[in-house]
Design a protein that fits this description.
single chain, alpha+beta, about 50% helix
């Protein structure tokens, strides 16, 4: 399959599943659930769908299981909206990249690391005020 067509299908399937997700009336699905990524294989037999869910791990597991049980509903919505010969098998999984990024940010905030370039902004401001440096470059770095 052409890469551009594959990207268009990914975007369209993501839109369809996102719309179907908002129309679901299941009380187990949190309003803080969203589709973050869709990747269809080149032979269109499988489609990986990642969901971002805010909540504790128990709630996430329950919602992912509910979404997996709703695969038929999602496939019907896709078939109603797209004209493709074969509707791919959906492989639904949890996207934890947002939580992982928040975890990494919290670790980085606890570290007190000074970089050489931390003084570059201050040096630039002093330089723009007319102060001249005698070092190797004009920004106060050695």
């Amino acid at each position: 399959m052409d890469r551009r067509r594959q990207e268009r299908l990914n975007a369209e399937i993501k839109r369809i599943i996102g719309s179907a997700l908002t129309n679901m009336k299941d009380p187990n699905i949190s309003s803080l659930t969203s589709v973050t990524e869709v990747n269809i294989t080149s032979d269109m037999s499988f489609c990986d769908v990642k969901f971002s869910i805010m909540g504790n791990q128990k709630e996430k597991n329950k919602i992912i299981e509910t979404l997996r049980n709703a695969e038929g509903y999602f496939k019907k919505e896709i078939s109603d909206s797209l004209s493709i010969r074969q509707i791919p098998k959906l492989r639904i999984s949890l996207d934890e990249s947002i939580e992982y990024a928040n975890h990494i940010n919290s670790i980085l905030k606890t570290l007190d690391i000074k970089h050489k370039d931390d003084n570059a902004v201050e040096a630039f401001e002093n330089y723009s005020e007319g102060e001249v440096y005698q070092d190797e470059d004009d920004f106060g770095r050695e």
